[in-house]
Amino acid sequence: MSVTISPIHEEQGHYWNGQCFRSHGGCGAAVIGQGLRIRQQQQWGELPFICSCYPHISRVENAIVAEGDRAWPLDRVIAEELQRIAPYAKTALRMRRAFTSRVIQCAIDEGITQFVELGSGHLHTSAARAAVIGADAGQEPTIVLVDHDPLVVAYGQGDLEDDPNARHRSAMVRGNVFAVGKMLTYLAKQRLLDLDQRACVLGVDLLHFAEPEIDGRSVPQRLARRLHPGSFVAITHLTDEPLLAPANADDLVALRAVTARWCRAHQRCVPPHPRPCSVEEFARLVADLDLLDPGITTTRCWPEPEETRHPRAPYTLAAVGRIPERRPDASRRGAP
Ligand SMILES: C[S@@+](CC[C@H](N)C(=O)[O-])C[C@H]1O[C@@H](n2cnc3c(N)ncnc32)[C@H](O)[C@@H]1O
89-330: CATH homologous superfamily? Predict the structure, then answer.
């Protein structure tokens, strides 16, 4: 049966206003109320209900890359709106998947066999999981996917139940990645992550979901304190500032305008909502890592330097770094 979806026009229809439409059995957002977005982000992973009133970013992205796979009609409407705003969206998501695969292969080549994907989205479409499971490596690498969306986690755990072979190589857990210290402790206790061995942690298109009150740098910073030295951390972030000066001024104006409309359209979803950072802010985010060459680049180009002077939105910065050796006086294994 084919479903006809009426297109939505920018600035028409619903945007997130802090209220769940449903008076009973909704997501609980109405209980948390408006103006408390930071609390909402921290508590989102613990909300008792799945909200069906608003689209969700993980399903919207699936609708863009996997043509509606497990997306609800409203998710597909927003996916279409995003692609109208940024025709490059689908290619950008494919580039992001290719970036993830390259990072995982690079870590495997360095002998790393445990992987954690923060803010993973759906398990069955996870590029990270596909790369780990498909890796041609004798040591059988493992991956833990972490997301705070209860539906993403429920689907993922269901998929693993259906595939006993995959279960010993992958796990899916629900958690708020902005409480990353607590999450690492949980993963270690569950024996899903050995903090005495090197790991590769991916925060791909995640930190731009931090509410303004949350310092996104706290995530790589805590990873640097807790992960074994030599571990890899990959970070990407939306920006409206190109790394190289655009070939003409119109490209820069278009990049800024399209990125702003792209972020505005995301506000039709339940929070969190993305915000772009500047190149300088991104450099600060990854300052606790020893960056691999070429330092800060884009998901499209890594491990090569950025070379385009015609940036298109969504334009995403990327860097992959190693956890540096800890100074003898700075052993903070127990730190949060
Ligand atoms: C852009 S999507 C998925 C990106 C995924 N890393 C990839 O490369 O395909 C971002 C995901 O982060 C999740 N997310 C956002 N904030 C989170 C948080 N505080 N804790 C855990 N997951 C979060 C969302 O639920 C969503 O599934």
Answer: Vaccinia Virus protein VP39 (3.40.50.150)
